[in-house]
Design goal:
By secondary structure, this protein is mainly α. It has a domain of 34 residues. Helices cover 72% and strands 0% of the residues. The radius of gyration is 25 Å and the shape is rod-shaped.
Length: 57
């Protein structure tokens, strides 16, 4: 019984480590890759867009 529980603990620890490394990897990827989108999104309302379209801009 004790052996089985120890085996489960090892598996759990391995899973925990895997998720940790995955988190670290994704964090590193996020830091290295350039921002795909602007930090401040374009917040022009639909009404304003329609108005500009009417003006022919």
């Amino acid at each position: 019984m004790a052996l089985a529980s120890m085996g489960m603990m090892v598996v759990g620890d391995g899973m925990h480590r895997a998720t940790d490394s995955l988190g670290a990897l994704s964090r590193a990827m996020r830091l290295t890759q350039p921002a795909k989108h602007k930090s401040k999104p374009n917040r022009v309302s639909q009404a304003k867009r329609r108005k500009y379209k009417r003006q022919g801009r």
